[in-house]
Amino acid sequence: MTKTVKVCRVCEVERQTSEFYAAKVNADGLRNDCKACFKAASKKTYVANRDQILDKHRQWKTANRDRALAKERERYAGNRESERAKKNARRRANLAKYRAIELAYHKANKQVWADARARRRARLKAAPVVERVYRRKVYERDGGLCYMCRQPVEFADMHLEHKIPLSKGGEHSYANVAVSCEGCNLGKGVKIYPRPSEVCCENRDHPGEAGR
């Protein structure tokens, strides 16, 4: 007959087996200390060795970045509402600190911020596909040339152009984005795959029309 109670070795209180964590090495498959005692001991160890533990965690995350991100996303997906509530509470309690951190990050990582903003906009537009598109990768893939007028564009001045606009059901994906200069981007508007002659930067020749 399976036991339903067990005495904790630490607090010496008889408790339900559901109040013990699993431990395969023990005959009954349970730890000898109850969950409450285990948590108390873990917290005491963490407080006494906080710096070493955090440093060890940072080293692991650096060496296993993809696995760490996957675990974070999985944990967040399973506790979305509670994680948002905790994050908002921390932000409200330290608003000035958070704003200073965000401002410094924004200044140092303008393109990363722009990438995140583009994904958020795509989700709000209900794009059928929303990939993690990075401007730097798109810029390098396209050789720094505007995909419409084929003129060079500085990375800091590039526009991330959706060939099929989000408003027309286009994806936010590498297959549907390209480098664009400001003139072509604004001139194209919500058109789909325009010819260079239809979207022309002011006072700019288009190589595609040179042979006409």
Instruction: Strand order, main sheet: write it out.
Output: 1-2
Q: Briefly, what CATH class of the largest domain?
A: Mainly Alpha
* Fraction of residues in helix: 40-55%
Shape descriptor: elongated
Q: How would you classify the helix and strand content by structural class?
A: mainly alpha
Mean pLDDT: 86
User: Roughly how many Å is the radius of gyration?
Assistant: 27 Å
Order of helices and strands: EEHHHHHHHEEH
Q: How can the largest sheet be summarized?
A: 2 strands, antiparallel
Our measurement of the CA-to-CA distance between the termini, rounded to an integer number of angstroms, reads 91 Å
How many domains comprise the coordinates? Answer: 3
Number of strands: 4
Helix count equals 8
Q: Beta-strand percentage?
A: 5-15%
CATH topology of the largest domain: DNA Binding (I), subunit A
CATH architectural label of the largest domain: Orthogonal Bundle
Low-confidence stretches: 196-200, 202-212
Give a description of the structure.
The C terminus is likely disordered. The chain has three domains: 46 residues, Wheat Germ Agglutinin (Isolectin 2), domain 1 (2-Layer Sandwich), CATH 3.30.60.130; 60 residues, no CATH class; 78 residues, Orthogonal Bundle (DNA Binding (I), subunit A), CATH 1.10.30. The longest helix has 15 residues. It is elongated, with a radius of gyration of 27 Å. Strand 1 and strand 2 form a beta hairpin. Helix 2 crosses helix 3. The chain contains eight helices and four strands; from the N terminus they run ββαααααααββα. With 212 residues, it is mainly alpha-helical. It has a two-stranded antiparallel ribbon with strand order 1-2. Helix content is 47%, strand content 7%. The N and C termini lie far apart (91 Å).
